[in-house]
Amino acid sequence: MAENEWNSLPSMLFDCARRWPDRPMLRVWRGGGWQTTSWGDFALSVARIAAWLRAEGVSPGDRVLLVAENRPEFPIADTAIMAIGAVTVPTYVTNTVADHAHILRDSGARAAIVATARLAGAIDQAAEAGLDLRLCMETAEGWHGWAEADATPADAAMLMAEAEAIPPGRLACLVYTSGTGGLPKGVMQPHRALLANRAGVAEVARRLGLDGTCYLSFLPLSHSYEHTVGCFLLPSLGIEVVYSRGAERLAAELADIRPSIVTAVPRLFEVLRARILGQMEKAGPMARWLFDRALAQGLRRMDGPPLNPLERLLDLVLDRLVRRKIQARFGGRLVAMVSGGARLDPDLSGFFLALGVPVLQGYGQTEAGPVISVNLPWDNHRRTVGPPLSGVEARIAADGELLVRGPLVMDGYWNDPEATASAIQDGWLHTGDVGVLENGRLVITDRKRDFIKTLGGDMISPAKIESLLMAEPEILQAVIAGEGRPNLVALVVPAEGADAEAALKRINARVSPVERIRRFAVVPAFTLENGLLTPTMKVKRRAVLEAHEGGIAALY
User: Fold this and answer.
1) ∠ Cα 510 516 521 (to 5°)
2) Global model pTM greater than 0.70
3) pLDDT band at 4 (very low <50, low <70, confident <90, very high)
4) How many domains does the structure of the chain reveal?
């Protein structure tokens, strides 16, 4: 079957399994070692789980909640659900019981598949008596077991034929937004949206020569980006997916697995930079000088002025003595380390690029597949989020909002026609992001709704100021406030033992008078546990402002 003949995601994956039955598809750490799932084994397991779901009464159009960490059972269950015409509702393992209850109510899911007994307990509390079918990948009281379902007799060839008949416009999944403000909404992603993303990225992947290499999957598979890219897009390009064991083991895994591609959020890049700089502080004077020179000259190569002949010769030496050692920490085979989920500060990406680590910034939204644009290694403009993918139309509205059109755009928000009508107008998705197009590349400057209007009428971008603050080593997290007030104030989470005031003084010297922070308050860290971070480490600005309303008022 030719690529342009795929109508559905299961059809695409089954076709890959036919062509590569013995090829490694997925890898996970279990029982003290790495275990591999081949394409053939994946397809057979999908067929068995699909047969079990169907026998238990799951019908086309039914929504099935899927709550699991990154593991092979996740894409197996995901594909099986879609193959019988049902709709996957992937959700985060870090969700609270209240979060699960909202998604269950809103989606109307009648079945749930979870990874562990702990998650089974959370879903039992959230669902009360509202679920007809429960399946746990491990063992949980009152839940069917994965081994039972995966032993169901199945006709894989018949299921493959059925998958080929799934129309591209059928709803594949409901992906709930991470809720940086307000309750999460269910984004209706049809098969065509994810297949359109696959077609756009495939052109880039082929030019990178990624076939047969591996991808280290770090973001949660329930996140829209990882769901599209880690579950469907990269595997269909012949790239083995290796599931990371978590942030604390990521550095060791990079060196051990030696991936070609890694995806991360800006917060991880901040952590990695701090770790590298911390190690350099302990190094000898010559090592520090070489590192500083490699960093400075790497930035010069990108931003100018050009290196002179002697500096170019030194740069070759720095490649061998500094940059290769840094690259070795990332495995030595890295083709692309893609940042997404939030704005990546150009100074932060410049740090890694200057040291030879191929950091690429992309941009996307759950409502658009989710990949909209990405930089390319051979055309990497770090102050932009790259050109739109092939098949994606983009334009800037009169008020500066980015609009996107194409087959990657969602069908709308589940059970919310009013929000759908507001988001999609004349086929154009209103992203809510403010930006510009420069030489065909997108530059995102802020969220439209997040602009602060001060008492004096000045419109200020909090994202810009927050990004500057968090680029300072003394500050881990920051949120700016000032709507309807005479000036800006800040909520700051400082690094341990650091002088946040010194960092604020430096920033105030660099920005315009109306952007200066007049006062600040030190606050506890924004975390998943206190509900102030999304599962992909984005700060929930609205929630932070509400949680610290009294403290903000005291600053004026």
Assistant:
1) 120
2) yes
3) low
4) 3
